[in-house]
Amino acid sequence: MRLKSLMLGACSVIAMAGFAQAETLTIATVNNGDMVRMQKLADDFTTQNPDIDLEWVTLEENVLRQRVTTDIATKGGQYDIMTIGTYEVPIWAKQGWLLPLDKLVSDKNYDADDILPPIRSGLTYEDKLYAAPFYGESSFVMYRKDLFDQAGLKMPDAPTWDFVGEAARKLTDKNKEMYGICLRGKAGWGENMAFLTAMSNSFGARWFDENWKPQFDQPEWKETLDFYVNLMKDAGPPGASSNGFNENLALFQSGKCAMWIDATVAASFVSDPKESQVADKVGFALAPDKGLGKRGNWLWAWSLAIPAGSKKTEAAEKFINWATSKDYLELVASKDGWLNVPPGTRTSLYENAEYLKVAPFAKMTLDSINSADPNKPTVKPVPYVGVQFVAIPEFQGLGTAVGQQFSAALAGQTTVDQALKNAQQLSEREMMKGGYIK
Amino acid sequence: MARAISTRRKLTFTAIGWLVGFVIFFPILWTVLTSFKTEGEAIASPPHFLFFDWTLQSYYEVQSRSNYFKHMMNSVVISFGSTFIGLLVAIPAAWAMAFSPTKRTKDIMMWMLSTKMLPPVGVLVPIYLLFRDWGLLDTRLGLVIVLTMINLPIIVWMLYTYFKEIPGEILEASRMDGASLAKEIVYVLTPMAVPGIASTLLLNIILAWNEAFWTLNLSAASAAPLTAFIASYSSPEGLFWAKLSAASTLAIAPILILGWFSQRQLVRGLTFGAVK
Description:
Chain A: Its main location: periplasm. The complex is a heterodimer. By secondary structure, chain A is of the alpha+beta class. Helices cover 45% and strands 12% of the residues of chain A. Chain A has two domains: 2-137 and 299-358, D-Maltodextrin-Binding Protein, domain 2; 139-298 and 379-433, 3-Layer(aba) Sandwich (D-Maltodextrin-Binding Protein, domain 2), CATH 3.40.190. Chain A has helices spanning 2-20, 33-41, 43-48, 61-73, 88-95, 102-106, 117-122, 145-150, 161-171, 192-202, 219-235, 245-253, 266-270, 313-323, 326-336, 353-358, 362-370, 395-411, 416-433; strands spanning 23-30, 52-59, 81-84, 124-125, 128-129, 132-144, 259-263, 282-286, 299-305. In chain A, helix 9 packs parallel to helix 11 and helix 18 (395-411) packs antiparallel against helix 19 (416-433). Chain B has a domain at 67-232: MetI-like (MetI-like fold). Chain B has helices at residues 7-35, 39-42, 57-65, 68-99, 105-114, 124-134, 140-165, 168-176, 181-192, 194-210, 213-217, 226-231, 241-261, 263-270. The longest helix of chain B has 32 residues, at 68-99. Chain B starts with 6 loop residues before the first helix and ends in a 6-residue tail after the last helix. In chain B, 34% of the residues are buried. At the A-B interface, strand 1, helix 2, strand 2, helix 4 and helix 12 of A face helix 6 of B.
């Protein structure tokens, strides 16, 4: 009898422990301002959901990518929520590695139709949303209004490459360490190739034709690379072939660049008087074009997704709903001000008068995002998805290899023709190996 | 007669020594300096060397954002644990190879070293799958096992070269006096090889402390050591130099202090013997 009651008691204790025990979500994320802020504000979520604990694994972008790819490919189950970009979503969804976020889409309160259409379509595979955007970005021109005025130049809202080239050369004074334009040169698929691929779209170039044949031997690519290398030679800073986002940001903030074409997220950095010496002198314009109907801007969204086979789906969905909702934007605004809300995901944000008041770059950001179409990124038809990348698994390696060729051309270690020839050979080999072409 | 060295020559050599030392130490110094700057100052060009507003802001932010002590304890357990287990296995192995070599000893040594020739990423997926099935992912035990394995060849090689310096006759003499094998290793060989063992120990703790591939790939939230702590502060898009430097300074501090205290031992061990 005693034994029985003892066992009963033990059972009920275990059962209660089971109920009381909080579920722990492990969230893998990248280290950037908006994500760090989400981590800080997560108390709001855990107070609403006391039965859910959050554990964060923050990693540098490339480390994170390798880490989560290993885990999801082997079904390691280490993470319940992963922060991934528009590059991974179509590839992983096709592999069946992600859970579709059907509940989120049908939730009226969440209002999935409010998500900016280009961002939503970048995260959709076969009509199902596989990741919820946390913040989105495009790229645009940031320029120094004061220098343009002094030189009697006027930056149009939608400039052409010819104008940008001309203005950059005019504003360059290398003796005074003043450079007309700062662009990415550091090799990498997410570094110089993000910029150059987006730029090549506006020149009418494409990575592959409809039959996956590499196109670096075509005149459009030569025109793109010639323009870029010559422009940087005439009007770029020295050592540009090792400059990435952070290096250019430092140059621009210290007043050494008249123009910088890069991620829209940079706008809040260069406009911050605490860090930027040119905070009140920056103007914004759309990425340049060549009159062919496509602009040289990219599209990216850091998004939250749930790996297939996750055992904590419900809690994970709850968290994603919280982090990418309209209420979250309000929460950030109430704590850190409207300037700091994660941009580029929701139409309603760009209709919010308070936001428009504090963010002078809001309209340009919205226009830039809306002018990018990941499903139809180029002038000529292509078989792939992605504006500044090609959403195939081989692209990370191939993009970086081609980026090294182009970086070498910029550094003057090789000619533009040779770099293109090498890029063509590299791509042909990779495409044959992947079985895309024979 | 000792060679007379003029004061001038001494001075020159000292100056050159300091210069070389400074050049080698400079990146670490720069990291430490940057950790006391604001983000804006960290990327200022031209950079400010010493005259800037010293601030602890980055340290404060790093502390408030992540749990340094958890990561440090993980690093301590993983690096010390893997080195001790490694030594336990390697001392008898090196003894056998140094004092009773066979025809194949050289080949075995080479084979052990060859395991270091494969790029680690080549075996990432198989090891990840094994760890998943054994439930070792994101555990300290798993990381201790994998780091023991990857550092074992180096430990064996280092100990082997130290043991080679010890005259076999001494061990023979102890055997003549009736010492058993275990006693021979523990009471005769080990005390004589202490400088060698100590420097092997230190070097391997440092190697394990700094190991970034396996520790990053096999850990997630609970077993992540300081390498993951550093990786969480770098970003290709954004201003994180000061915070990254603060995190790096915090991560290298324990091992730097350990290295400082054991400097003499380490140098003696590494230069032990006449032919090294």
